Amino acid sequence: MSDIPAPITPSVDTQRRRLLQATAAGIALGTLAPPPFATTDAASTVAATRAGRVRGLREQGVHAFKGIRYGADTTGARFQPPRAPRAWSGVADATAYAASAPQRGGAGPGSEDCLFLNVWTPALADGGKRPVLVYIHGGGYDTGSGSDPLYDGTRLCRRGDVVVVTVNHRLNAFGYLHLGRIGGSDVAASGNAGQLDLVLALQWVRDNIAGFGGDPGNVTVSGQSGGGAKTPTRMAMPGAGGLFHRAWTMSGQQVTAAGPRAATQRAQLFLHTLGIDPAAPDAVARLRALPAAEILEATTVRDLSRVEDTRLYFGPVMDGEVLPRHPFWPDAPPQSAAIPMVIGNTRDETRAFLGNDPRNFELDWEALPARLETQQFVDIRADLVVAEYRRLYPHYTPSEVFFAATTAGRSWRGAVEELEARGREPGPAAPTWAYQLDWGSPLDGGKFRAFHTLDIPLVFDNIRQPGSRTGDGADAQALADRMSDALLALARHGDPNHAGLPRWEPYSMARRQTLLFDVPRALADDPRGAERRFWQQAPFVQGGTM
User: Fold this and answer.
1) In whole angstroms, what separates CA 261 from the centre of its chain?
2) Given this model, what pLDDT does residue 182 score?
3) Whether the Cβ atoms of residue 225 and residue 9 lie closer than 8 Å to each other
4) Cβ atoms within 10 A of the Cβ of 424, count?
């Protein structure tokens, strides 16, 4: 329907979805034909990696390599840490996107042979030492792919003379099912297997990106939603230390991770759903023997610990080894204190996923509290929330209160927690910059405003790509110019300021400076401060922690 905005992760187009589904039984590098949207006049281009040479395509002045293997097939090593790929002879094909991780939804069903990445670069092995942008897709920890058209790196390469990398990795039960207390030592890290995939991808960048014209000593990681959350998680993982040097997150925070007891209880529920006794000595062996489709079906079992969702939560686990602490609690991770960081959100986040229900646009004051209670993370009486928002914004309708309150108490609160954790760091810590996208999409009569995912095509300067919901008007392009240039400035200089912005001051606890991306742009001190103070009367515990 035309009034439904993009979901948490942008969907792939129909042709690409069919391509992935047709190969989901398990593809090998080099078996995919070029996607139907590839131009016929593209020139072949070849690059070298430590495992072997790869063939991509040169289009619009950019070398594009799609489906480069960075890890071995995980099918025979389900729930184990990833392994580097075996070397190959000849030239492997990298002209078409490879499989996404097993998942339900638009990018599924996927394949367990999913450890692939994509590279766009202006030049190969020319000693250019270009900044490297590594983007991690959204979709929570359940869905998504680095192959979405919105993530195409061509325009960023041409705009900023940078190298762009997008990544696929294991998701849901395949990447985050904590079996450490149920199985043996070989599955001790299973609750963070997806995170370890991302570490392996960053190691691939370190070891290979110079051959693609990039600087392994200047790597910026970025991501939106789930991809944003995976970034602060890596900032607290000792194994990721030194592999990236700047960070840019969009509407994705990971303040706390799942505790080992909670993660084990979810794993036990998951096994029971599959008819497997978690106490049985062969429980993990039986799980490994199941078809991937059966495992995916079991991920839909209800998670009774979460009021806002029905599906079982999968996400990073504070297992004491791979992730020895919560990512941003009780403080920001000291190992990443020297990394400059941008933390951003959109003003109307929840209109993306709660706006799909037309009833949420037709609420009255009587129905609002009950509706609100099921969709807010922070446990405050819903009638008190309504009363406060009516006091702050007396002109708001019930539906406007619903979307504003769920955004502030559900999505924005995590960003505030991370900003404060970085702002409290003593000593010469690296600066942190905050932004809020206030500009709203003009599509659908503007009803979805600045919804979750709207900043993706703006930051990639991809407003005309399939899946973009910015429209292609002058204001959208102006915002894309400003936001993409800010990302490029952070990658190149460690500071997102550029000539197209007002002076973007780092976030401080004294003023809480935040750049409002709108037409016109503005720097504001503590925007929505009254809302922030209201929600901070209750402690914040990220969904899935307990």
Assistant:
1) 25
2) 97
3) yes
4) 12
**Cα–Cα distance for residue pair 374/370, rounded to 1 Å:** 7
For 117, the token pair is 């990445």
Residues facing 493 on adjacent strands: none
Secondary structure tally for the chain: helices H, strands E: 15, 13
Q: Point out the catalytic residue in the list 112, 349, 388, 531.
A: 349
Q: Tell me how far the alpha carbon of residue 485 is from its chain's centroid.
A: 20
Note the pLDDT tens digit of each residue in 127-152.
999 999 999 999 999 999 999 999 99
CB of 521 closer than 8 Å to CB of 515: yes
Say which residue the tokens 């840490």 belong to: 81
Structure tokens at 35: 């996607």
Residue with tokens 């042979």: 113
Task: Select which of 190, 225, 411, 484 is catalytic.
Answer: 225
- 517 is written with which tokens? 């991306």
Question: Which pLDDT belongs to residue 13?
Answer: 36
Q: Answer positive or negative: Cα dihedral of 151, 154, 158, 161.
A: positive
Lowest-pLDDT range, 25-34, 39-48, 155-164, 362-371?
Answer: 25-34
Active site (annotated) includes residue 147: no
Q: Which residues contact 185 (CB under 8 A, 6 or more apart)?
A: none
Give catalytic status of residue 169 as yes or no.
Answer: no
Q: Which of 518, 535, 487 is nearest to 156 (CA)?
A: 487
Closest C-alpha to 164, from 487, 522, 465: 487
> What confidence tens digit (pLDDT) does each residue in 409-434 have?
888 999 999 999 999 988 778 899 99
Higher pLDDT, 105 or 213: 213
Amino acid symbol at 185: S
Q: How far apart are CA 110 and CA 131, in angstroms?
A: 31
411 DSSP 8-state letter: I
Rounded Cα–Cα distance for residues 31 and 93 (Å): 8
CA distance 112 to 194: 12
Q: Which tokens go with 459? A: 């930051």
- Token readout for 511 is 């003023």
pLDDT value of residue 22: 33
11 is catalytic: no
CA distance 460 to 441: 16
- Token look-up 């450490």 returns 180
pLDDT in tens, 499-532: 999 999 999 999 999 999 999 999 999 999 999 9
CA distance 277 to 272: 6
pTM, 2 dp:
0.91
Q: How many CA atoms lie within 13 A of 392 on its CB side?
A: 17
Of the candidates 430, 434, 406, the one whose C-alpha atom is nearest the C-alpha of residue 418 is 434
Q: Which of 251, 399, 452, 484 is catalytic?
A: 452
Which SS3 state, helix, strand or coil, does residue 92 take? strand
Determine the Cα–Cα distance for residues 525 and 94; give it in Å rounded to an integer.
47
Distance CA 224, CA 7 (A): 12
Q: Which of 405, 278, 260 is nearest to 322 (CA)?
A: 260
CA distances from 301 to 140, 314, 417 (A): 17, 12, 30
- Other C-beta atoms closer than 10 Å to the C-beta of 90 total 9
